Amino acid sequence: MGGWYVLGIIIVSLLLLSAMAVFLPRLFVRAIFRPMLALFYRKRVIGRENLPASGGYLIVSNHVSWIDGIVILWMMPRNVRFVVDGSNFGSAFAKWIAAAFDTILMVANPKSIMRALKAAREALKAGDVVGIFPEGTITRTGQLQAFKPGMGKILQGHDAPVVPVYLDGMWGSVFSYSGGKFFFKWPDKFRRRLTLYIGKPLPNDTLIELVRSQVNQLNAKAQTDHRHEFPVLAGEVIRAWRRRGKRLQIADSMGTELGGREALTRAFALRRVLAREVFAKDETNIGVFLPPSAGAVVVNVALALDRRVSANLNYTVSSEVINHCIKEIDIRHVLTSERFLSKVDIKIDSDTVTLESIRDKITTADKVIAFIQANVIPRGLLRRMLGLHRVKSDDLMTVIFTSGSTGMPKGVMLSQANISHNVDAIKKAIRLNDEDVVLGILPFFHSFGYSVTLWATQVLGPCGVYHFNPLDSRQIGKLAEKYGGTVLLATPTFLRSYIRRVKPEQFKTLDTCIVGAEKMPADLFDSFEQTFGLRPVEGYGTTELSPLVSVNIPPSRSPAAYQLDRIEGSVGRPLPGVCAKVVSQDSGDEQAAGIDGMLMIAGPNVMTGYAGQKELTEKVIQSGWYNTGDIAHIDDQGFIHITGRLSRFSKIGGEMVPHLKVEEEIAKSIHQSPSSEPSADSADDGKGTDDENAVTLCVTAVPDSKKGERLIVLHRPLHKNVDEILADLKTAGLPNLFIPSRDSFYEVEQIPLLGTGKLDLKGAKDLALQLAAKA
């Protein structure tokens, strides 16, 4: 009797389910998918109160995976009628699921698109919730793509609001393009947490680029909220170096070559002896005074393994500046080397500890224990033994001092999450791999050198090859040829030197060249490509932003055939998790596409603050937004275009005159002159100096009693008459206020530069004041 009863229950249940599938398909599908999704994912909704209580509205979301629509339906309180590509719903089963949720299907022909747009408009008028993925495609990098114009057509004819949402957590799932492919890969997390961020409703006449900005702001909030999920890099370097094994991991121009496990053994040994012989237990901030080299990499890693804060000090500045930095963050010990210290004319007030003296204190026991730690102890257990499990995302990892281009350097405090996010973003956007060889020529006191050529290189799989002088072109060319360099990170100033001094065959293995720190002259793209067959791309960042904000994806690294990911002349789109907006300097309102204003950045890459300068920190960071001080605009594709720096504008006759624009036009004029092009006879004969390739031009300003300020042009010897240059500026259509007077051109032996290759703005202004006073 009991068996028949159970069988009856089963039959009745099947009949009810069948009836539900036919007459109540939405409930049936939800009954199936909800428990399935709950099995594999954990959900969280933030901002549910922002959803209108009634009536129709348009949901606008990012698009990361194949199942974004299903996931959002799972999270939303009301059914969402998504407008989707019908070509993905070819099977009968897929069409049945689409019909269950009143999905609006369209295919790539004008009639279908018009029908879908009309259906979406009618749905909004009927009080339904309509959803779109305005990127029109799944992101291949994790970056938010440009929004298509269809949103505006759906909203025509009624006042339904727009609700921006951001679905966080799907990148890395089997349904996303992480790892360079869909589906056929292992997920990197089990029961990953998915969070739907819902923004405040926007008027339906909001410009599409401002709607996109709101979605991206939710992205930055999500990444900042989840910054604790970024891995501790000290633990990641253990994994990376162990996996590398005996393969070359670090090399430098002094002949040092280390495999992954050998480098790890040295770092553990150094950590032990420093903790025992040098540092007090409460000593946190440690100075590092070393050029980019194998030794500097091992020192920085050893400090991270010991949970200390490294501060790589700038060896191109004066003793006064160095000691100011040391005092600023209470550094008691500075790690350096006798060999390097003997080559620089700097006196350090703090206690210096040389690597040579430390080497003599490493015992046999230190070496044995370090070998066991590097090769035998399971990584999870090792992390606990080292206390790395206690490291928090907001703990300080490094202090990097600003370049001092406008005054005394400031100590920028960067957290574990700041640097770890930058490494993760580089992994997604640039996709460094085990076969790469990164030319590490940027100093570690430079934020790009620290985050990218040190940590990203050592954690993401490549081999790092280091040299202490980025202008030593011949040596860099030899290293690139010897080790097969594939990635070069530099400044435009450095590239000019390489064009003249490096043989094309030495850079033949390069497939990626990214430049930053200063504006890339238009002619330099062509010159570098003509010489080496590789076109550079620009990126952008500041020390306060850990440092990378945006980058154009190099062609060799682009994962998407049909997604725009670089625009020459821009500095790229913001990296995953980073949001940029441009605001009016007068009202503070966000600007529309193409309109210049102050560039603001938000995301998990925003610094903790300036060391010992709370008021200055609060001045530049407001409500999570960092004021870069750069003037820029964002185009309708989401790419950032830097047009100047606030400190590089002059107020002349009541108008803001951009120095960078004037520089660019003067450079164009000089470049047009036939005599400015190097002749065959002027080719490098091996006897010249790299000084020939230094920066040749700088526009600055000095006070003026009549107009407030006047422009000053500092220049190296010109290949064109000043009167001809002024005529070219007028022909180019520059306003009269933008054109310097003839007596404002001063020939100088050298344009003031910082050790990083950036223009020394303070030095240039001081020099201009001196020259103008003598005139």
UniProtKB/TrEMBL annotation:
Alphabetized SUPFAM superfamilies for the sequence = Acetyl-CoA synthetase-like, Glycerol-3-phosphate (1)-acyltransferase
Q: Which InterPro entries match?
A: AMP-binding_CS (IPR020845), AMP-dep_synth/lig_dom (IPR000873), ANL_N_sf (IPR042099), Plipid/glycerol_acylTrfase (IPR002123)
Please identify the protein, giving its name as recorded: Bifunctional protein Aas
The protein's organism comes out as Stieleria magnilauensis
> Transmembrane residues, as ranges?
6-29
Record-annotated Phospholipid/glycerol acyltransferase domain positions: 57-170
Gene3D superfamilies (UniProt xref): N-terminal domain of ligase-like (3.40.50.12780)
Query: Where is the region Disordered?
Result: 669-690
Question: Which family does the similarity line name?
Answer: Belongs to the ATP-dependent AMP-binding enzyme family.
SMART domains per UniProt: PlsC
Q: Which UniProt keywords are present, listed alphabetically? A: Membrane, Transmembrane, Transmembrane helix
Which Pfam family is an annotated match for this chain, by its short name?
A: AMP-binding
Gene name in the database record: aas
